[in-house]
Amino acid sequence: MRRLGILTGGGDCPGINAVIRAVTKSALYRYNIEMIGFNNGFKGLVENEAWLISEAAASGILHRGGTILGTTNRDNPFAMRVTGPGGEPEYEDRSGEALRHIEEWNLDGLIVVGGDGSLTLAHRFAEMGLPVMGIPKTIDNDLGATEVTFGFDTAATTATEAIDRLHTTAESHHRIMVLEVMGRNAGWIALQAGMAGGADVVLIPELPFNYEGIIDKVIQRRSRGKKFSIVVAAEGSFPEGGAPVYQFSASGGQKRLGGIGQLVSEELERRTGLESRATVLGHLQRGGSPTPFDRVLATRFGVTAVELAVAGRWNEMVCLRAGSIRGAPLAEAIAEIKRINPDSEQLKAASAVGISFGW
Ligand code: F6P
């Protein structure tokens, strides 16, 4: 084996550069394998925008957020958006070009650092015969097969710090403070940060809430002399009988989760007469330096990905299970998103210390 490709797809997260560094250095030092990086996820593979990642390029990036390769969460090689003759969007299958570029670069395989979207595309290429290795990346922590994805710990740490800050101002003003966090249709960031930050209410997509449940908690706290409350709402949470809230991009088309925090805040103020404010943490959760946990996890993932590739264990994804890094079939990782089990020990521990889930 002489050369491998690598791309980073989907939403970025802290720790991607740590993976690129680990893959490149361990490939060079242990096996004398060169790494070719494709820019901007699968778009770079289709458009053949690639470069040799030198040891120097992989150096000094461990602590840096983002990705030196760039990324996109829009481009699908099986349906690339092009502009039709009348200016309307059309979609073309350009997967053949992507495969041709792998051959032109003489690559023995491709490492895809991605979340469920990019790894689903990787799996499609694997089914077409491309040797593919996945590395799980997402702040949402919603990939199957692995107990945790890198990026999640940093996002949860940022959200915890935000809760700490909201606590002091909430207490001064005797307000309800609602913090909306990311996570798509899984409540991992909300639960982790809510527990770490001592939130009073945590709303997660796995357990639709009702307003009376939240209000009971707020009133109960007031009767104990606590005149403020902290509510953490996962962006995908929604009330019983309701649906997740979406926003649409200004240019149209793109639909993304967001807005539940403001709705909850307004509804709580309307129903209780207590002052309430909403904060949306947004992309602050995706930016900045990775935590030590994420740097080490990303490094372990990167090193094992190369080891498995060298052993010919293609069409797998590296994962963390019971403290060790190992490979699992890519198909298992993307079969369904990993969500919080309402019967889990973690959720029960949160309830045991008084966190309300809004019911
Ligand atoms: O999947 C990561 C994530 O940050 C989600 O938590 C969030 O819903 C989404 O990406 C936001 O995407 P974008 O960066 O396109 O707004």
Short overview:
The protein has 359 residues and is an alpha/beta fold.
Question: Any overview of this molecule?
Answer:
There is one protein chain. This protein folds into two domains: 3-150 and 290-333, 3-Layer(aba) Sandwich (Rossmann fold); 154-286, Phosphofructokinase domain (Rossmann fold). Helices cover 37% and strands 19% of the residues. The chain is built from eleven helices and 15 strands. A seven-stranded mixed β-sheet has the order 3-2-1-6-7-14-15, sandwiched between helices. It has a four-stranded parallel β-sheet with strand order 9-10-8-13, with helices on both faces. Helix 4 links the parallel strand 6 (110-114) and strand 7 (132-136). Helix 1 packs across helix 9 (292-310). It is elongated. The mean pLDDT is 97. The structure holds 6-O-phosphono-beta-D-fructofuranose (F6P).
Main attributes of the structure:
359 residues; alpha/beta; Rossmann fold; 4-stranded parallel β-sheet; 15 strands; binds 6-O-phosphono-beta-D-fructofuranose
Write the layout of secondary structure elements.
Blueprint: E1 3-8, H1 16-31, E2 34-38, H2 42-47, E3 50-52, E4 80-83, E5 89-92, H3 95-104, E6 110-114, H4 116-127, E7 132-136, H5 152-173, E8 176-181, H6 188-197, E9 201-203, H7 211-223, E10 229-234, E11 246-248, E12 255-257, H8 260-272, E13 276-280, H9 292-310, E14 316-321, E15 324-329, H10 330-334, H11 345-352
Parallel strand pairs: 1-2, 1-6, 6-7, 7-14, 8-10, 8-13, 9-10
Antiparallel strand pairs: 2-3, 4-5, 11-12, 14-15
Helix pairs in contact: 1-9, 5-6
